[in-house]
Every structure is written in structure tokens, then in C-alpha cells.
């Protein structure tokens, strides 16, 4: 008899505890559903303060030494030209000489392919990185002056960077967070409630594009280097409890 009473008591206690856990779970679930998730946007326009530009020059000859001597002379002419344009020597970086054998390919009367040595091609690259954006920009646009000196020179489009990007990112994060909070407050106000504690904050990747461009954002972030003027943006997602 006593054993039956004890068993019933234990079962009843377990049932009550189970109801308590269930009630608490339902309460927490409903509480977790009473949230507001918003996304804020921070943007900033700025102008690049660093430019990187490079050009390639080459010589061809059947004699390796002859090609090398001609290329060395071209390097000296290019260096003097850049100095005359106000470019310090310490901003010029000349790469190692690249040597390639050239061949002409043809087919003989029996249809077999054959190759004939066509000489050596030696090439070298000069690179400049400078904070004098306007000067290097002008240099890259008037590179025909080097070609007119008898040098086979190919200029690459300049790349533009910004050395204070970390400061820009911090300001955009602050603006995006403020924007998200204002959105959340407006939603709560219209719903007749108020914001509670911040539960979660998630930052998106930085997207840097040319202003008013049609460039697409990428999952890992976009970083435009072709435009001197840039526009950066970042998103912040905030999740608030609702009281």
C-alpha cells in the first residue's frame, strides 16, 4: 500500500516538473519570437590618395647579348625620362629581365609540324607607386613620349588605392549601426511597443565601387581599383528583443 502511494507521488511530482519545463520552454520560445531584425547601411565617398602604375618594354634579337644591351640602354633612357618628369628614383622599381625564346611554326610538305628559332625576346617592367596621384596619372596618359624615343613600351592602366580605408570603415560601421537602430525604433513605435536588449549584431562585407556605377556586389566583397573616385558601403544587421 505504502509502495503504491510512493509510486503515485513520484509520478505526480515528475508530471508537475515536466509541466514546469514545458511551460518554461514555451515561454522562452515565445520570448525569442518577440524580436525585431533590421539591416542598416553605411556609405562613404572618397578620392584615392595612392596610385600604382606600370609599363613594360622589350627588345628582340637573334643574339642574346645584343638584346640585353639594347634593353639595358632602354632602361637608362626610361629612367632619365621619368626623372625629367619629376619622379624620384626611389619610387621606380625595375623588375628582373625576362628572357623568352621565340619560334616560328610551320608544316612541311608531308604535313609534319616544325619550328624554327626566331630569336630572343627580352622584356622588363617598371613600376611606380606614389601619393602624387595627378602626376602619375598624367604620366600614364602621355606615355607616347617614351615610344617616340624609339622604345617599344606598353603602358598598363593605373590602379588607385586609399591609405585611410580603415578610418572609412570605422565611420561606415558607426553610421550603419545608427541607421539600423533608428529603423528598429521606428518599427517598434509603429507596432506600439519598445525595443529591449540587443541580442545579436552581424556585420556584412565592405563593398567598394566607382560612384554611380553598375558594378555588382560580391559575396566576399568588391574592391574597385580602376576608379580614382570611389564609394564604399557596408551593412549591419541588428536583432533586438521587444518589450
Describe the overall structure.
The chain crosses the membrane at residues 6-26. The chain is 38% helix and 36% strand. With 243 residues, it is α+β, with helices and mostly antiparallel strands. It has helices at residues 2-33, 64-84, 133-141, 144-147, 165-190; strands at 35-47, 50-61, 92-94, 98-107, 113-130, 153-155, 159-161, 195-203, 207-209, 229-242. The strands form 2 sheets. Strands 2, 3, 4, 5, 6 and 7 form a 6-stranded antiparallel beta sheet that branches. Strands 1, 8, 9 and 10 form a 4-stranded antiparallel beta sheet that branches. The longest helix has 32 residues, at 2-33. Residues 6-31 have low confidence and may be disordered.
End-to-end separation: 52 Å
Flag low-confidence runs: 6-31
- What does the average pLDDT come to? 87
Tell me the radius of gyration. Answer: 34 Å
Number of strands: 10
Largest sheet: 6 strands, antiparallel
Can you give the helix content as a percent range? 25-40%
Number of helices: 5
Which series of helices and strands comes N to C?
HEEHEEEHHEEHEEE
Structural class: alpha+beta
Global outline: elongated
- Residues in β-strands, percent: 35-45%
Protein name: SIMPL domain-containing protein
Keywords: Membrane, Transmembrane, Transmembrane helix
InterPro entries: 26kDa_periplasmic_antigen, SIMPL/DUF541, UCP029033
Pfam families: SIMPL
Amino acid at each position: 500500500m505504502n509502495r503504491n502511494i510512493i509510486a503515485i507521488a513520484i509520478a505526480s511530482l515528475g508530471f508537475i516538473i515536466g509541466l514546469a519545463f514545458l511551460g518554461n520552454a514555451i515561454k522562452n520560445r515565445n520570448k525569442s519570437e518577440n524580436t525585431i531584425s533590421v539591416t542598416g547601411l553605411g556609405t562613404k565617398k572618397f578620392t584615392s590618395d595612392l596610385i600604382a602604375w606600370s609599363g613594360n618594354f622589350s627588345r628582340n634579337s637573334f643574339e642574346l647579348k645584343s638584346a640585353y644591351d639594347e634593353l639595358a640602354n632602354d632602361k637608362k633612357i626610361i629612367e632619365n625620362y621619368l626623372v625629367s618628369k619629376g619622379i624620384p628614383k626611389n619610387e621606380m622599381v625595375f623588375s628582373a629581365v625576362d628572357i623568352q625564346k621565340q619560334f616560328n611554326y610551320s608544316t612541311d610538305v608531308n604535313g609534319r609540324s616544325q619550328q624554327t628559332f626566331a630569336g630572343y625576346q627580352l622584356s622588363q617592367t617598371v613600376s611606380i607607386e606614389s601619393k602624387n596621384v595627378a602626376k602619375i596619372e598624367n604620366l600614364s596618359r602621355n606615355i607616347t613620349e617614351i615610344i617616340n624615343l624609339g622604345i617599344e613600351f606598353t603602358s598598363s592602366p593605373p590602379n588607385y588605392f586609399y591609405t585611410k580605408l580603415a578610418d572609412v570603415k570605422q565611420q561606415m560601421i558607426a553610421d550603419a549601426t545608427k541607421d539600423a537602430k533608428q529603423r528598429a525604433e521606428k518599427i517598434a513605435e509603429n507596432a506600439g511597443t519598445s525595443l529591449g536588449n540587443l541580442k545579436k549584431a552581424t556585420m556584412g562585407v565592405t563593398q567598394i565601387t566607382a560612384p554611380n556605377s553598375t558594378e555588382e556586389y560580391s559575396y566576399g566583397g568588391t574592391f574597385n581599383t580602376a576608379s580614382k573616385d570611389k564609394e564604399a558601403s557596408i551593412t549591419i544587421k541588428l536583432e533586438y528583443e521587444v518589450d
